[in-house]
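Internal tracking record. Fields below are filled automatically when a chain is submitted to the structure queue. Please do not edit lines marked as system-generated. If the sequence contains nonstandard residues, flag them in the REMARKS field before resubmitting.
Queue: standard
Priority: normal
Entity type: single polypeptide chain
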Amino acid sequence: MPDIYQELLKLADSDMYPLHMPGHKRNLESTPLKGAFRCDITEIDGFDNLHDESGIILEAERRANDLYGADETFFLVNGSTSGVLSAVSAAVLEGGRILAARGSHRSFYHAAYLRHLDVEYLPVKMIDKYGIFDGYSAQEVQTALDSLDNQVEAVFITSPTYEGKCSDVAGIARVCHDRNIPLIVDAAHGAHFGLGKEIPESAVKLGADVVIHSLHKTLPAMTQTALIHLQGSLVDKALLKRFLRIYQSSSPSYVLMSSIDLCINELLEKKETYVQRLLEHRKNLELKTRGCEKVRIIHTDELEDPSKVLIFVDSEEMTGHQLYDILREEYGLQLEMAGERYGLAIITGWDTDEGIDRLSKAICEIDNRLSDSKSRHEESGKPALIPQKQMPLFEAWDSDSEAVELGMAKGRIAGDFVNLYPPGIPMIVPGEVIDQGLIDQIEGCIEQGLNVQGIFNGENRGNKGIIIRREIICVKQK
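SYSTEM-GENERATED OUTPUT FOLLOWS
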């Protein structure tokens, strides 16, 4: 088997253009950090310590805070995952109750598991014609809190979503603060928000108490680099710092920390240039594909994040995954992900004009291949409603479990997560009841070639030989 380094070199030398994370797009002009090994050290004299900052790391974190404007900002080298784990753990006491969007990243559920939390959900909101999660209004959060008699310790939302939809963070923050509870915003995909007037405002400026940003998703920083911002007094700083020490490596990479610092310095000097380049790329894409009807880009009046290019397939002749494969295999364009009826590309201020032109030309050519028959499946892609919760998450995940054939699992209690990845949002959570709608949805996603994690292949041996069956992990019945 080839080693990772050789495979990376092979990819770097190929003509495959990256329409996905990380934000630097392998464009060496976006960062001076080229000789990474020369920077790979440990906590030696003069280089501070991430978990007890007092020198150059503290100064670098303050520069990051100058950019985003929180009360305090801390570096994350274990990605936004470590930030979500730390934020939830610090905001809610063990065994406490939290209100969250069902479409939260799996790291939220891992935090809920580790802290034995009682998770209550906001109603699922979808943009049905695209099959993606919608954002939330302040009224929707207020209604949910009222229905729970305000007996929750924090609210957790994702804004922007993976596909680029935003919630009313400012309004939701006011609703939370009226009840003296903190708002945690997983803004992993929104590190570029607030860098210019023409793009959405940052959740930090909109009043959230804790905000998590993945720099690497849309900015020129290496994979795993992220920030966590703290504001106000509703989440204890000392407790947050404790959990950051728990959930992050005790040997944090100086290569990653230097990548964060270089990214911040670049933005402090050139954020307007970055925003302008991003918006120019977006405008050019929409302009050059404006005549496309069967394969078309959803505009930012529907999906607010300009970095997310949702390419919707409005034809019975093609699925989102087929579009994904065609762009990769025929055009050398690697998308971020595929859904049932769309492909998702990420663009940034560090994309090249040539890469954007290749994408627009490919969309136009594919659109011309298809007939004028529009899709009749207006509701396709819509996830099932929230499954019924039968057991607490931590209890179900810690219970004895067994593999059950997927088609025979109706009515059983899930013993593990089933995630559609990317983006890593659970289709079912341990403790929830598996219904026929979920089984059908999982089968459909697998048939489309989507990456469903948590479904395993078992074997039936009989007269006709070995038959592969799909299995799901369930809590053992007593």
